[in-house]
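Worked Example 4.2. Consider the chain below.
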Amino acid sequence: MGSIFISYSHEDDRLKERVVKHLSILPSRLDLWEDSRIKPGENWYERIQRELRSANAAVLLVSADFLTSNFILKEEVPQLLERREREGLYVTPLIARPCAWQEVTWLRGMQLEPKDGKPLSACKVHQVEKILAMLAVKIAHHEQDIADREHFGIPLPAQRGGSEKPEGAYKVLVVDDHPIVRLGVAQTLDCEPDLEVVGMAEDAHEAVEKSKACSPDIVLMDISLRDMDGFEATKIITQQFPNTKVLVFSMHWGTSYAKRALLAGAMGYVLKTEATEKLPTAIRCVRDGGIYLSKDVQGAIPGKAAPEDVSNVPTPEGCLSDREREVFHMIGEGYSTREIADKLHLSVKTVETYRAHIKEKLGLQDANELLRSAIKWASAQGEEAE
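Applying the procedure from the previous section yields the following structure tokens:
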């Protein structure tokens, strides 16, 4: 059983109690660190080193007293935290009170809470409670990842010993809502000397958070996630983190899915039915600047062109929103405007507006052309799904 390390200063006692209240629901032991309470003659660095070695997460309450403590002033501690973070420690500095935290280079590079830099002491009670509740959830996810990896025998970076990854190893974040798939993929990739799994996520929100926290070189993205689909998650990650590439890894067969992935910003599409050894090959292809497509979906782009060159002709995958594609598909399946409105819980007027937008985006002249195009597209979708 790991622990959660909580560092605070005497002036933050009340906030520390609130942090403890939220984190005490987790199974981990809470280790509290306060500089002024270290006994005379005690080797504080050896103690902090020992406590951080067993910790899964570290929460730092940042205030003026904290910035003048041994914890920050002694170079060894930030170096120790940075090293443990690379080995899998989840570190979150909480800005407790107004202070010059921006002057501490090490803190500037961390993922701070609150994100806007506003001290918790200036937040309303419900805002503080929300931030601490979310922190507890994030730490719970992180600890579950650690437990899953230990259960399935996937080594943590700190446990690799002689097989330590080289400095230039390509960092991978694995996103899948099925724990066994997620962990199996991580284990496969961790066996490759030039690839390093730096994190795992089970939904899109966590994928975005870990893309920020772990700075992966590539995100291996499933499509079917609980909170939003992998296409939308791909758009968010490629827009927010332009140095991070995305490779979609999915069970969905069909060129339409591959087209959507590429148009969302992904650099490839790998089917889960592929042989296991294809996955590292696909990642290396993307790493080297290429686009990887499984054999069965290579028709997604003529001659494997870059995503922006997929087609000059408007397509449902390329120019329609998710809702517009849904309406377009239902038109092709023979549903009337009223039936579409009822099934999607929309007004008839809203569906008519969608129809007008679809015609405009696809360059269709009238309702008959819209119907013919929709039938053809829906039929192709059905054939690909078989």
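The first strand starts at residue 3 and ends at 7. Residues 125-151 form the longest helix (27 residues). Compare this with Example 4.1 before moving on.
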